[in-house]
Amino acid sequence: MKAVELYAPGKVRLRDDAAIPEPASGEVRIKVLAAGICGTDVHICSGDPSMSDLIAPPVILGHEFCGHIDSLGDAVSQEIAVGDYVSAEMHEVCYDCPACKHKQFHACAKTKIRGVSLPGAFADYVIVSASNVVKLPAELPPKVGAILDPLGNAVHTALKVPVEGRKVGVIGFGPIGAMCAEVVSFAGAEKIFILDVSDNALGRAREWAERRQLHDRVVLMDAKEADVVEQVIAMTGGGTDVTLEISGNPIGINNALQMTRAAGDVVNLGLPKADQVCLDGFGKNFIFRGLTMHAVIGREMFKTWDRMLELLRAGLDVGHFVTAEIALEDFSKGLDRFSKGLEGKVVMYPGGAPA
Ligand SMILES: [Zn+2]
Ligand SMILES: [Zn+2]
Questions:
Q1: Banded pLDDT at 35 (limits 50, 70, 90)
Q2: Residue 298 C-alpha to ligand 1 middle, in angstroms?
Q3: Would 302 be classed as within a structural domain?
Q4: Are the CB atoms for 155 and 176 separated by under 8 Å?
Q5: Nearest-ligand number for the alpha carbon of 113
Q6: Angle, helix 175-186 to helix 199-211, in steps of 10 degrees
Q7: Residue 27 Cα to chain centre, angstroms
Q8: Is there a single domain that holds both residue 329 and residue 244?
């Protein structure tokens, strides 16, 4: 079968002779319909040393996808049948660590990720555990089915605390930040303050707000301006109720703490490049103001997936985040454009790009 394989650190090739995998007991094989390229793939393919502990080449990449069940291993529940249209949670968890024992599987200490440390979905076929399969409604377009993993990150982040009727900050308008903004807008946030340092990102945010006719609810802020925090505090009369930190930049992380009102919530998804982040005025800005900080990892299994499918059924529109649909064979081109920030999400089709 065709497969995009990382064969050495930072080195990728397209194979057409990879073995079609067989599902073991409790597993299913899925014929991949569409798969999304993620920022994580960019890090992996550039040989980013921060990924080296997680990944052991050779491995087939790809952890965002949808497809049809093609073959069942033994001991698979009768709810799953060949032909089902599905996606899957690619975090394979241990069911035994303290987090798993508390049913907080998303935070499993021994998570293995298909497409990172186990073979993934940039291929004609992928194997997943039957318990990780998520059935999709037939009317969901494949390009949306292919991006449910990052949309799940966004839904998990955006709805970590209630946002309806609230003033919400979103720091970082990359693909996940943009999805977060879409979700909090859909969920009825009163005002959304979007901060980014990139003019391109702010341009995309402006286009989105115009298209959605959200001028009165969305405020775009250039985070390069030194007094951006003071501006948000002035405009909100004391700070946002909730701030979603997606940038992972230490300045963004500090801005999130400082622009959130006393007793408000800061939700952190963005990963800083360095191991350490210095929080300015930890007492003054965090403790004395009684803030709550939340860390988001992955998607809650399977609450986030249920919530996400509910939102999509209710009309949440995310197809526009996909700006390129290409054949799997054009992986290198797609990765290159995505890594340069020229595309939103890039979705690949093993069966060839849609006409
Ligand atoms: Zn991803
Ligand atoms: Zn576990």
A1: very high
A2: 9
A3: no
A4: no
A5: 1
A6: 30
A7: 24
A8: no
Q: Ligand 2 centroid vs 92 CA: distance in angstroms? A: 9
Identify whether residues 29 and 55 lie together within a single domain: yes
pTM: 0.95
Residue 303 maps to a domain: no
Residues contacting 79, CB < 8 A, separation 6+: none
Residue 105 alpha carbon to ligand 2 centre in Å: 6
Does some domain include residue 312? no
Residue numbers annotated as active site: 40, 43
> What average pLDDT score do residues 136-165 get?
98
* Distance separating alpha carbons of residues 336 and 323, to the nearest angstrom: 14
Q: Do 139 and 159 share a domain, yes or no? A: no
The b-or-e profile of 32-61 (16+ CB within 10 A means b, else e) is bbbbbbbebbebbbeeeeebeeebeeebbb
287 vs 280: CA distance, rounded Å: 12
Kindly provide the b/e burial profile for residues 93-103, where b requires at least 16 CB atoms within 10 angstroms of the residue's own CB.
beeebebbeee
Is residue 214 domain-resident? yes
Average pLDDT in the chain? 96
Contact 17, 33 (CB under 8 A): no
* 50 has pLDDT over 80: no
Give the count of domains, the chain. 2
Give me the pLDDT at residue 212, please.
95
Which of 172, 226, 224 lies closest to 201 in space, CA to CA?
172
Average confidence (pLDDT) over 309-323: 96
Q: Do 123 and 35 have their domain in common? A: yes
Looking at the structure, do residues 270 and 343 belong to the same domain, yes or no?
no
Closest ligand to C-alpha of residue 36 is 1
Ligand 2 being an ion, which residues bring their Cβ within 5 A of it? 93-94, 97, 100, 108
> How many CA within 13 A on the CB side of residue 5?
16
By residue range, what is the domain housing residue 202?
154-295
| Domain at 174, CATH number | 3.40.50.720
Distance 257 CA to ligand 1 centre (A): 26
